[in-house]
């Protein structure tokens, strides 16, 4: 058992006494993660169709700025950790989501999709892992989104945007846009979505849902 403390001034949710039981996955965690992954996979798949025309339009205005939208493909990692609060949650949900996306069909290579999913999940968990999965709040969500954006931004430069130098105008715009998207979409949006879902009572059987209700008291 562990105690959840709420700090109203910062929105921090902590478990003051680390326990190995907090890190154990239950059947309910696995089922919820799978459901979350399927839902996110549908979002990934649908966004594949919207991204091409939108990115072309944005690219004609300022090359590289379309990267601000990439976080739609990796917000799932931060959201997964906020909801499940278990090590590996981001990787698990990302991989399930990517599998759904691939089954439905997309234009990206199998290796690119799954390697990206795993790397994004690992980087999304870094801020939470540093706190031993004890702190869950908006600043942590934003940090998670920024870490993922940083990883994905460099990943694209090294393996997809060959010929685009980091310090070139397009490279700079790309990285700034990636970080902004990571902070706002993967960070702020994921936090707001998590809180909204928790307030419906759908997460009452999980520590994350109970913590939201504690903050409201």
UniProtKB/TrEMBL annotation:
Residues 7-22 have a biased composition (Polar residues). The lineage of its organism: Bacteria, Bacillati, Actinomycetota, Actinomycetes, Bifidobacteriales. Residues 1-22 are annotated as: Disordered. Keywords: Membrane, Transmembrane, Transmembrane helix. It comes from Bifidobacterium animalis subsp. animalis IM386. This is Hydroxymethylpyrimidine transport system permease protein. The keyword Transmembrane applies. The chain crosses the membrane at residues 30-49, 61-84, 104-123, 135-159, 179-198. InterPro entries: ABC_thiamin-permease_prd.
